Amino acid sequence: MACTLFLAGCSGPLSALEPEGPSARGAATLWWVMFYGSAAIFVAVSAVLAMALFRPAPLRRLGPEGMIRWGGIFFPLSNLVLLVIAAFVLGERLLATPRDPAPLRIEAVARQWQWEFRYPDGETSFDRLHMPAGRDVDFAVTSEDVIHSFWIPRLGGKIDAIPGHENVVRLRADRPGTFGGVCAEFCGPGHTVMTFTVEAHEEEDFLASVDELGNGEGGQ
Amino acid sequence: MSSPAAKMAHGRNARLLLMAAGFTIWAVAFIALYGMLSVGCRFGWDRIDAVAGISVQRLQLLVLFAVHVAAGVALAVGLRPPFPREGAGGHFVRWVGYWAAVAALGSTVFSFAGVFALTACY
Q1: What is the Cα–Cα distance from B106 to B26, expressed in whole angstroms?
Q2: Is residue A219 scored above 60 in pLDDT?
Q3: Which residues of chain A are within 8 Å of residue B114 when distances are taken between CB atoms?
Q4: Residues A114, A142 within the same domain
Q5: Is the interface score ipTM higher than 0.85?
């Protein structure tokens, strides 16, 4: 029952385990690989421990040097090498490298404790982000006061919002839908409520939604 | 003036630092590369061509990488066996220092070889 309660926290609008875009999918894939990998390591170590207690003969044949060489060096080293390579490859995929034509660019400006989103034609929205589904969007993230962090768990990220500096993260929503976003860097007493809603639209709906903002319906 | 016994004790203590020397080089390399990566990106060095299509940013990271690898190699060579006779415990400390230096050198190459190929800025 405790497991069920814990696992219930793995779904919902902020679940990084229910990815809706390539960036979040990469992170989720790495998470599952690490989850199953660490489970296998736990089982293997438990088996060795049980052998040491109940059937020590095969381990004795391996000897202390063999145990150190295989269990202490080769095994963790091979795991770390695979994880580092995976992290490098996935990390490269997240980068907003220049390309032609440039993806849609939306500015995300953080301040205590609110998110402001600025669209290419000057429209703005607060704590509600509109984006098109099915194509890449570059988010230029910055802050007006302290360091915050921009994170949409089901799409990917996260990236720091730093005063006086602009970080860019490229995200894509595979399908239209509503997702949650949060500030992922402690930024003061209002940190926990510094959330925002992401609405991924079909192309036409996106344009209409942003047009409405231009007509003063962005709200605050 | 310190006594001969105190000098010997000091020498033994200083030898302990050998065990940490290799990974100290690794740590300095980490801080230098991380810091200069940020400085270079801030000043746009990745957009300035230095030589043969290599940017100033990548060149300075490669130089930092090479300097720390060279320091790691020099340390490992300096500590390599056969170890001098240094009394009780000295041999062991040298042995640990040497293998720690070899491990740190491997870690330096593995951890930071990304400067050759990974994207530096963006």
Answers
A1: 10
A2: no
A3: 88
A4: yes
A5: no
